[in-house]
Amino acid sequence: MMMTPEDSLAWIESRRSVFPKEFNGDPVSKEEVHALLEAARWAPTHKVTEPWSFQVFMGEPKNELAKTQIQGLYNAKGKNDDTEMKAKKFTMIADRSSAVIAIVLRRDPLMRVPRYEEEWAVAAAVQNIHLHAHALEIGMYWSTGASKGRPEVDALLGLDEHDLHMGWIYVGRYAGLKTLSKDRKSVEDYVTWK
Ligand SMILES: Cc1cc2nc3c(=O)[nH]c(=O)nc-3n(C[C@H](O)[C@H](O)[C@H](O)COP(=O)(O)O)c2cc1C
């Protein structure tokens, strides 16, 4: 066994979402992002359809993505105080993140399992990435809040009718240790024994 049960639980328990405003500005390299995404491969997946795909935006493409997100926002909602504030947030995220990664569900061409099962498998893959980022001392979090369903962004991602954009992973350097900000339910709260 590679780690004790106590170590395993402590690892899972001490993983935290790290937000772009907390990144320290040091870069995460392309090789490190590659290593991070390696963890996705081992997620459970019904009929081993492996429905996850990731589009990595680093350097200039990352700035282009932010521009597209801002344009999509203005096209949908116009320019006002609220959208200008949101536009600044897109720019801040692009500036502070070493990589912005689009999480995209690519369906099994044979459609052997229902789509919701493919979504669950992608979520499992993202959690693998989260846990591995923790080991690599790379900060990240999964965001679904930004630019969902904007045609300009979907076009940039080249989505087809069966694909589903499941949000973004923002990646940056974070060598600190975050503590749990909120208490979690106890096992007794979410388990019933039959
Ligand atoms: C599917 C999914 C979508 C999320 N979307 C957002 C988001 O849009 N904005 C955000 O601030 N956090 C988002 N989060 C991260 C949660 O805020 C975070 O997991 C939660 O605060 C618990 O913190 P922890 O990950 O450190 O345990 C998302 C998490 C998941 C699983």
How would you describe this structure to a colleague?
By secondary structure, the chain is α+β, with helices and mostly antiparallel strands. It has a single domain (21-190), classed as NADH Oxidase (3-Layer(aba) Sandwich). 44% of the residues lie in helices and 15% in strands. It contains 7 helices and 4 strands; from the N terminus they run ααβααβαβαβα. It has helices at 5-14, 30-38, 60-77, 81-96, 115-136, 151-157, 187-190; strands at residues 52-57, 99-105, 138-143, 164-173. α2 crosses α5, α3 packs antiparallel against α4 (81-96) and α3 (60-77) packs antiparallel against α6. The longest helix has 22 residues, at 115-136. The chain is globular, with a radius of gyration of 18 Å. Bound molecules: flavin mononucleotide. Flavin mononucleotide binds at residues 16-17, 141-145, 167.
List the helices and strands and how they pair.
Elements: H1 5-14, H2 30-38, E1 52-57, H3 60-77, H4 81-96, E2 99-105, H5 115-136, E3 138-143, H6 151-157, E4 164-173, H7 187-190
Antiparallel strand pairs: 1-2, 2-4, 3-4
Helix pairs in contact: 2-5, 3-4, 3-6
Bound molecules: flavin mononucleotide.
CATH architecture classification: 3-Layer(aba) Sandwich
**Element order: H for helix, E for strand:** HHEHHEHEHEH
Average pLDDT level: 94
The shape is globular
Summarize the model shown.
This protein has about 190 residues and is α+β, with helices and mostly antiparallel strands. About 45% of the residues lie in helices and about 15% in strands. The chain has a single domain (about 20-190), classed as NADH Oxidase (3-Layer(aba) Sandwich), CATH 3.40.109.
